[in-house]
Design brief:
This protein is mainly alpha-helical and 502 residues long. It is built from 23 helices and no strands. α5 runs parallel beside α7, α7 packs across α19 and α18 runs antiparallel to α21.
């Protein structure tokens, strides 16, 4: 154990030294606060001011029409404010290929920050204009920005990191996402900005980081992989690597990019539809889509959106719930940081299947404790502890590793199309959970968590059987691993060869 602790300390010290040699740490921070942080903040930031916004809808309607709106009308407008954020996110995810292909990674991030400022301006002025339509519009634009930056941020991280640090660097996406969620909960406290007169300011706070990015990012380098593989500029690529990681020849990294570039010449960039038809990447696509499916329906989205209702059902007092949810956010961040320390030692595969397996067990036990919540005063605290464990197992396994895996299993020509497909799936299920979960929890009560347990068990079994280890391997080596996967004694490549012969 002492040896393992010493090795882990040496590894962490080495990682920190490499991250502080050049500008890469600054770039990671700028991308984080203007990227996934924004999405995390908007996910939780709306829960605290919800009663204030609904009262604003009521008063705006009354001033406009001279009579109070029907209750169903307020509910419908509020539902649009909540759900159209996911619609905007879906549109942003669909536009990733065009915008990043046209502008590049750096300019695409700057463009998304500009749209974020537009959304904040609409949100801030909606209160003065007494227009709930402007809130809906701002939420759509916020969603578009989140959908665009989700994929662009991930691509940028994957394309600036060397093979040995790929997992650590891409994991920062999830860390900033969790930091955004925690910030949304923290700023939503009544002691800070969670008051009726400040709700429009509360929903516009992250725009400060968008302004900072627009000022700072032009002085930081473009993604080296994008410069070398897509632009064919090896001098700019080497200059970007030296700016990010310090002086060096980076011969190994550039040789890996050259090999990938040669592979791309034989297989040019694909559209999402072409990627779905390509048998050579069929296993990569199946695995990543099933992982995203399991992530979104594992119950974690329900905890993020409906944590108040879940803890209330568990028996926690109303005045204590907001502090418990802050604890959830802090736990998530600490788990992601801890995961960054072990990801390059433990590998990806074992963290995936063990994370899903432990989550399935927690959901089963949570179902039991929710059923028995009235039997004793200490049972609600057991349920809360199980939810904290769920956050730890999810953040330390499937959630943190999925973003790294997407960058690792697709070569440059396939990566953008893969991000478009996975993010479209992700935003669809975010909207689906937001609309359907209230009806599920009212119909099945505590037994709805059995559904989440089944999804987690599916993720455990599937990743254990089919997911190859990707730690420390080049993208071309990983592609060969996937091509070797067989199901019922056959692979997709064998089927393709048979069709060609016929």
């Amino acid at each position: 154990m002492l040896c393992m602790a010493h090795d882990s300390e040496d590894t962490m010290e080495s990682v920190l030294q490499q991250l502080t040699r050049g500008n890469v740490l600054l770039l990671i921070i700028i991308l984080g606060f203007s990227g996934s942080f924004q999405q995390g903040y908007q996910t939780t930031g709306l829960s605290s001011p919800s009663p204030f916004i609904q009262r604003f809808i009521n008063s705006s309607w009354y001033e406009r029409y001279g009579e109070p709106p029907p209750t169903q009308t307020i509910t419908m407008i509020w539902s649009l404010i909540v759900s159209l954020y996911a619609v905007g996110g879906l549109c942003g995810a669909m536009s990733v290929k065009f915008i990043t292909g046209t502008l590049g990674r750096k300019k695409a991030m700057i463009f998304s920050s500009c749209t974020n400022i537009i959304a904040a301006t609409i949100m801030l002025t909606s209160k003065v204009a007494k227009s709930y339509e402007m809130i809906i519009l701002a939420r759509i634009v916020y969603g578009f920005t989140s959908g665009l930056t989700s994929s662009t941020h991930l691509m940028y991280l994957g394309e600036i990191s060397p093979r040995r640090l790929r997992g650590v660097v891409t994991l920062t996406y999830s860390t900033f996402l969790s930091l955004g969620k925690l910030s949304g909960q923290l700023f939503g406290l009544s002691e800070i900005l969670g008051r009726e007169e400040l709700w429009n300011i509360l929903l516009s706070v992250p725009t400060v980081f968008s302004v900072v990015q627009i000022i700072v990012l032009p002085f930081l380098p473009e993604a080296p992989r994008y410069l070398f593989i897509e632009k064919g500029d090896d001098k700019a690529c080497k200059k970007a690597l030296q700016s990010l990681w310090g002086q060096g020849d980076y011969k190994e990294e550039m040789e890996e990019m050259l090999a990938e570039q040669e592979a791309i010449k034989r297989a040019p960039p694909k559209t999402p539809l072409q990627l779905m038809r390509d048998r050579t990447v069929r296993w990569q696509l199946i695995i990543i889509l099933i992982i995203y499916f399991c992530n979104q329906l594992s119950g974690m989205s329900a905890i993020s959106i409906f944590s108040f209702d879940i803890f209330l059902k568990a028996g926690i007092q109303k005045d204590q719930i907001r502090y418990v949810t802050l604890g959830l956010g802090l736990t998530e961040i600490l788990t992601f940081i801890s995961c960054g320390m072990v990801i390059e030692r433990a590998g990806r595969r074992v963290l995936f299947w063990s994370g899903y397996g432990l989550m399935a067990a927690c959901w089963v036990f949570a179902t039991v404790t929710l059923t028995l919540k009235d039997s004793s005063d200490w049972v609600p605290f057991i349920t809360s502890a199980l939810i904290f464990l769920l956050i730890i197992f999810f953040s330390g396994g499937p959630s943190g590793l999925t973003v790294a895996l997407t960058n690792e299993i697709f070569i440059q020509s396939d990566r953008i199309a893969a991000f478009v497909l996975t993010m479209m799936e992700r935003w669809f299920f975010i909207a689906f959970v937001g609309l359907v979960f209230p009806f599920i929890i009212s119909a099945l009560d505590s037994y709805c968590f059995v559904l989440f347990a089944c999804i987690c068990l599916l993720g455990c079994v599937f990743t254990f059987i089919f997911l190859p280890e990707t730690k420390g391997k080049t993208l071309l080596e990983i592609s060969k691993e996937f091509r070797a996967i067989t199901f019922c004694g056959k692979s997709f490549l064998e089927e393709k060869v048979m069709e060609t012969k016929l």
